Amino acid sequence: MIHVTTTINGDETEFVCDPRETLLDVLRDRLSLTGAKEGCGTGDCGACSVTVDGTVVCSCLVLGAEAEGKEIGTVEGIATGEDLHPIQQKFLDHAALQCGICTPGILVATKALLEKHPDPTETQVRYWLAGNLCRCTGYDKIIRAVMDAAKDMRSAA
Amino acid sequence: MSQKHKIEVALWGGLKPFADGNDKVEVEAATTGQMLAAVIKKHPALEDHIEAGVSVAVNGRVIASSLTEPIPEGAEVVIIPQLKGG
Amino acid sequence: MAFDEAKKDFNLIGTRPARPDGIDKVTGRAQFGADKAAPGQLHAAILRSPHAHARIKSIDTSAAEKAKGVKGIVTRADFATGLKGEMWNKLENVMAGEKALYDGHAIAAVAATSALAAKDALKLIKVDFEVLDHVTNVDESMKDGAPVIREGAAGPSTPEGMHPNVVGFYSSGHGDVDAGFADADLVIEDTFTTEATHQGYIEPHACLAQMGKDGKGEVWCCTQGHFNVAKVCGHLLGTEASQIRVTASEIGGGFGGKTEVFIEPVALALAKKTNRPVKLVMSRSEVFRASGPTASASMDIKIGMKKDGTMTAGRGVFRLQGGAFPGAPGTFTAMCAFAPYALENVSQEAYDVMTNRPKQAAYRAPGSPMAAFAVESVVDELCNQLGLDPIEVRLKNASREGSKASFGINWPRIGLVECLEAAKAHPHYSTAIPENGGRGVSCGFWFNHGGETAVSLALAEDGTVSLSVGTPDIGGSRASMCMMAAEELGIKYDDIRTTIADTATLGYNEISHGSRVTYASGLATIEAARDTIKKLCKRAAAKWGIDEDAVYWEDGFAKPSGPNAGEFEPMSLAKIASKMGATGGPIVGHYEATPEGAGVSFAVHIVDAEVDKETGSTSVGRYTVIQDAGKAIHPSYVEGQFQGGAAQGIGWALNEEYIYGEDGRLQNAGFLDYRIPVASDLPMIDTVIVEVPNPGHPYGVRGVGETSICPPLAAIANAVSNAAGVRMKSLPMSPPRILKALDEA
Ligand code: FES
Ligand code: FES
After folding, report:
1. What CATH architecture applies to the domain C22-30+450-593?
2. Is C19 exposed, middle or buried (0-12, 13-18, 19+ CB in 10 A)?
3. Taking 80 as the threshold, does the pLDDT of residue B84 lie above it?
């Protein structure tokens, strides 16, 4: 077992894990942060997306041990207290989720996109999210929600 | 319960061999359940098929499983395979 | 309950409020199948057959039992014996008996203190297999000499003299097709194939089960039908459904695939053996290898047409491969194939064929999309060769109220003509077809379903409402239920909380399938609200000392009518509720029935596609979905169903397929090699909601979830064929297939 000290959604956190355990396993099974989902475990679906030091990664491809000293961001950290982040609100307004299993990963990825590119084109959004599978929506409403959130966030900035 | 009356029941083609070569069966009934029971009585070889599950269309309305739906006089009645979905 | 002609001005129906479970789902709080844990839980893993077909001579679990952390192992010996028919088939699929019937078939399962320990222990189980010949292709499987999957599996309808792998047969039709073909100016006959695809829900099957020594079980799982899970588990474990309480988690997609039961009985058997809670979650590769792909199909179609576009006759023969068990939806394929057309002469027959593949499961309108692909391709080719407009031809031959359906009924009020008219009028249809591109049009049809339904609606003292339904919410249905209840009661949408009740709390509810939820649970909700209103009016009448018939309900208030009109101050729901304890006790409305008025739904899709003749790759340009919803309760979620079905159809048409090797093993059991559409593959998907009310629902609702996947295979095939200048007859139209077709042209 390995002892790890890390920061998750701004909170300093410690855990122990098996060297084979992924960051996703640790978040879900050891820390009860079940917002990140396992859709494949092989880096192909994006349901497990989190940020490590600001970069979006598939947490199923990162070992728990690699979190040592890093800043981890998950879907649970996107809202500020009671207040939803504009992208969360836009996902609700646009009905951009059906089952919602892909939503945590897509929100994490979208937040990172808009921090980097506040004014993306539709094509940029589609390519940025190409690693996040959604089987329910056909992406239409997701793309609209992201574009609309970007617009609002720009005018608020 | 309304009175039983004459009903002409249409079968799908695959059932013909089990209804002595007929694709229509005439029975007396007032509900879907009575109708199916009467059809089986007339052509016992249809029992396995009907028990395996059928739906009944009454004037174009598909009744998936209920045996208590009334069949009005003069209604068009068709037995079709049982419906379900994904 | 019939359509309420009078009900026209809705307050809430047709608006787009945020879904009640939305905040939980955007903050990560919503609990899906794999998100729950129980104190002291074990983790389970399943050993699966590496062979497509093999006799299981022995299973030795002794070494695994001694491994670190292992608490229990189950095999077929731990399940019920003496089952028959459907339940025997289900058990056989959940845990192999004498033979492994497909690559991925479950052989044994281990529960251990961690998921890693359980997986490690699987490697210590020794299975002695006698490998048998296998068959995975539908046409091969019907031939003399093909390996027999199982003797005696054929149903009563199967004609004599066929291979034992043919287990079901359906035929129907009317008129004289040969005379019809003789009457035609042009007859086209061809053979089409589609491959098996997976529903591809992003959430793998997952459950958490407990079973004490008292024989009472508890299951938490992601399913489209938790009452059905209780039923199947009851049978497979040799107990009763009533002894197993099942709670439906949030469900991360199902599309038909989660109508089946795979892992819950295994987790329960392990829980029983170990006396500990057991969590069991499929990996993605297990989802592909061992949970429901669709049937694959091989289909012969012949259609005759006159120069003016009149279709004179149609014939279809459909062979569906459904894996190692009976149940491929060939009957539905045959029934749906010519449903859009009012044909005087039509005949169709279908075969249900077993192979060494996982048992097929429903996938949105099971059987219909492949039928549409085959029939609509031939219709398109006839239009091309006769120089006719594809929508005009479809309009000319369209099924409509009173016309005779291909499967024998006379149609009630249906909306195909309205959909075709809307398609013709849509700007998409009048824009120029892009250079190097092609346009495809297709109709699609699905029946929809009612089914056993119970709901309960309880008032709280503060005037809010708790609505319990028994159909898992697979696409936003709690929002529609809240809307319908609020509409009837005349209170705020936010004052209703809809819960998916567990199996011990509410009467039996059929699975969320057949596009039945908004129709059947919706109808039940409206009825339960009306039942509640009667009770509210009674309380007001008692308070006012007047006859209860002299009280009516309007916009959330009980009001005196007739001679008493204006005599008493209207009483709000909240006011009555606040005093209910002292005026007769709790107020609860309910409804239980099997509503039998589900309305069928038609759709028309238009798509433009471009084909790169160098690489064989296709890009989908513009896409428009037009579908009859009867009445859209929450238009955003109706549009979502339209778009989702179209996207899945695009995947089925262009990329997705189960690929089997010579060894009978699935070669692409992961999202990398089984590629579903990603955001950058797709365009925006335009939608038009047509509303031709269903006479069988008070607001006119028709199910919408399934029909949306019926037209896209054909629409895209037509667009691609028109772009490439060669008829594509096999799906998926992957680049190698397109290049091959171009080469052969
Ligand atoms: S679970 Fe990590 S990418 Fe699918
Ligand atoms: S909403 Fe279900 S997978 Fe995206």
Report:
1. 2-Layer Sandwich (3.30)
2. buried
3. no
**CATH T-level topology, domain C33-133+199-290:** Aldehyde Oxidoreductase; domain 3 (3.90.1170)
Q: Where are the beta strands (DSSP E) in C274-431?
A: 278-281, 296-305, 311-321, 346-353
Q: What is the CATH number of the domain that holds A97?
A: 1.10.150.120
Residues A101 and A48 in one domain: no
pLDDT at C412 (0 to 100): 95
**pLDDT, tens only, C648-663:** 999 999 999 999 999 9
What is Dmax (Cα atoms) for chain A? 49
Is C98 buried (19+), middle (13-18) or exposed (0-12) by CB count in 10 A? Answer: exposed
Calculate Rg over the CA atoms of chain A. 15
Which residues, in sequence order, are CB contacts of C682 under 8 Å at separation 6+? Answer: A126, A138, A139, A140, C620, C623, C647, C650
Asked whether the predicted pLDDT for residue C361 surpasses 60, the reply is yes
Domain boundaries defined on chain C: 22-30+450-593, 33-133+199-290, 367-448+599-744
Closest residue of chain C to B85, computed from CA coordinates = C514
pLDDT at residue C6 in the model: 60
pLDDT at C28 over 80: yes
Write the CB contacts of C160 (distance below 8 Å, at least 6 apart in sequence). none
Q: Are the C-beta atoms of residues C113 and C43 closer than 8 Å to each other?
A: yes
Contact C328, C164 (CB under 8 A): no
Ligand 2 pocket test: which of A48, A103, A108, A142 has the largest number of ligand atoms within 8 Å of its C-beta?
A103
User: ipTM strictly over 0.85?
Assistant: yes
Q: Which pLDDT belongs to residue C1?
A: 63
Evaluate whether B50 touches B36 at the Cβ level (below 8 Å): yes
Contact by Cβ (8 Å): C49, C103: yes
Query: Structural domain of residue A6, as residue ranges?
Result: 2-77
Q: How does DSSP classify residue C711?
A: S
The per-residue pLDDT for C466 is 98
The answer on A68 and A14 residing in a single domain is yes
| One domain, residues A70 and A134 | no
Answer yes or no: is the C-beta of A131 below 6 A from any ligand 1 atom: no
Q: Which residue of B has its CA nearest to C294?
A: B86
The reply to whether ligand 2 has any atom less than 6 angstroms from the CB of A102 is yes
Does chain A reach chain B with at least 3 CB pairs under 8 Å? no
C367-448+599-744 CATH: 3.30.365.10
